[in-house]
Amino acid sequence: MPPAAAFGSACAALVCRFTDSSTDADGRIATYRWSFGHGSDEATTRDAGHAYTAPGAYTVALRVTDDSGATDSTSAVAHPDLPEDLPENLPPVAAFGTACHGLACTFSDLSSDADGRIATYRWSFGDGSAEMISPDAAHVYSVPGTYTVVLTITDDRGASASASGAIAVVAHNSPPRAGFVSSCVTLTCTFSDSNFDSDGTVVGHHWTFGDGESGDEPNPVHTYAGFGVYHVQLEVTNDGGATGDAAQDVTAATPDHPAIGVSSSVLDFCYHPGATRNCVVLTRTLRITGLGATLPRWTVSSDQPWIHVSPAGGTTPSDVTVSIDLAPLRPIGSRCCAGGSIVVSAAGAFNSPLRIPVSLFFYARILRQ
User: Fold this and answer.
1) What's the burial of 167, exposed, middle or buried (CB within 10 Å: 0-12/13-18/19+)?
2) Where in the chain are the domains?
3) What Rg value do the Cα atoms of the chain yield, rounded?
4) Which of 305, 307, 300, 361 is nearest to 334 (CA)?
5) pLDDT tens readout for residues 144-200
6) Would you say the CATH fold of 173-257 matches that of 96-169?
7) 55 contacts 82 by C-beta, under 8 angstroms
8) Residue 112 carries which DSSP code?
9) What architecture is the 7-78 domain classified under in CATH?
10) 324: which residues sit within 8 A by CB, 6+ positions away?
11) What are 265-322's pLDDT values in tens digits?
């Protein structure tokens, strides 16, 4: 059997209360849906209350559904009114605050009503999207731009007010990470860009080669006028205008002025007990390059007891193992780093001795000599 929908109502000024009295002879009422006779306001509780914005006669409808899916509906007219001796209603004052992070904005109601309360809110976000009717609101714009936001409020006696403001929505732009690798054959060096941009695309490059020359190609080839160590810098720009930079020294040599070459100008190590941060790097390989008949022998040494190198010397280009020994270090705290260097030497090389910084970062306990 279907349920029988029924309810009673009572109004005090513009606020009405609706009390359910529906029945179901062979089950129970499972859901309720109230319509208050204006706009799109609805409720789904068993009993309901509603504040009207103006006196009048409103047709209130209740639709109930039982636990078997059968439904029934009923309606009645509610008569919210105001006493005749009320003083003149002062209109409310609309105001709001805005905060945006990237394309996501939040709006905080700052409105007031001197002689009552604010009954309804309606937000328009200026981009054609659906309006919101909550006191505070949040909205995510699809594209950057300037938008006019409007808040319209109505107090408990039907008076309305609006506030509007233009907001500039700018997409969040993370700066790109610049990087490059270099390779030199005598005085000619090739540079390969290795940049990364997490939320866009790198659209511009600017290189300074350390000899007064510059270029804007992604992967340039540059020939130096003479031997030496040159400080090369790269600045990259992404499609949002943010920039990132990187720098390293490169060595250009000639047969008459040979130089030691190495596969890395800096050696970084990291350690975390248990590898819970996937960070246990205690050994690296450094390749000695650039040697020829004019550089018959090279040597390598460290300036810290916890940095070990092997082999300590050679007569041809070779790989050198650089390892970290934690035993000479002692714990002093929770997180930090230790630093040192290794030195590569070769008689006859214009850049000898070549010092390579070594750093060790601890994610857990600090270790110190």
Assistant:
1) middle
2) 7-78, 96-169, 173-257, 258-369
3) 38
4) 361
5) 899 999 999 988 777 889 999 999 998 777 888 898 988 888 899 999 998 888 778
6) yes
7) yes
8) B
9) Sandwich (2.60)
10) 269, 271, 282, 283, 306, 307, 308, 360
11) 888 888 776 655 557 778 999 888 765 556 668 899 999 999 999 999 988 778 899 9
pLDDT digits (tens, 9 = 90+) for 316-335: 778 899 998 888 876 555 55
Name the pLDDT band for 125 (thresholds 50, 70, 90): very high
Would you give the distance in Å from CA 322 to the centre of its chain? Answer: 37
Q: Which fold has domain 96-169?
A: Immunoglobulin-like (2.60.40)
Dihedrals phi, psi of 274, to nearest 5 degrees:
80, 0
What token pair was written down for 283?
Answer: 């050994």
Identify the H or E element spanning 23. Answer: none
Give 107's contacts (C-beta < 8 A, 6+ positions apart): 96, 97, 98, 123, 136, 137, 138, 139, 149, 151
122 strand-pairing partners? 152
- What's the rounded Cα separation, in Å, for the pair 124 and 130? 8
What does the chain come to in residues? Answer: 369
